Amino acid sequence: MDAQLKRGVLDVCVLAAIKNEDSYGYKIIKDLKPILELSESTLYTILKRLEEGRMLIVRSTEYEGRLRKYYHITDIGLKRIEDFKNEWKEIMDIYSFIDREG
After folding, report:
1. Does 12 score more than 70 pLDDT?
2. Looking at the 3D structure of the chain, how many domains does it have?
3. DSSP per-residue codes, 54-100
4. pTM here?
């Protein structure tokens, strides 16, 4: 898969994982595990990029004596998911054209 396309897909997967509720790193990895294998280093790179793009915001809360970062999706992040779904429809239309028989 093209690296740029894969990067975009991973970004949207992470956004989708926190779409319905705020979450933290380990839980995001666990939630995504049924569909993709994601290392912690890759996840935190994605989270940093999404934060810089204002697609999510971060808050720290103490949990069992340690600070835990929680990630919350913003309206910009929600829009990115919707944009991705529209882009994916176009990709599927192109795939159907290429894959047609005859």
Report:
1. yes
2. 1
3. TSEEEEEEEETTEEEEEEEE-HHHHHHHHHHHHHHHHHHHHHHHHH-
4. 0.86
AA identity, residue 85: K
- CATH number, domain with residue 66: 1.10.10.10
Query: The tokens of 39 are what?
Result: 């290392």
CB 61 within 8 A of CB 22: no
Which among 13, 29, 30 is positioned nearest to 77, based on CA atoms?
A: 13
Q: What is the pLDDT of residues 55-75, one digit of tens each?
A: 999 999 998 999 999 999 999
Residue 86 structural domain: 3-99
pLDDT, tens digit, 9 for 90 and up, residues 20-39 = 999 999 999 999 999 999 99
Best CA proximity match to 83, nearest among 8, 22, 2: 8
Question: Are the C-beta atoms of residues 86 and 28 closer than 8 Å to each other?
Answer: no
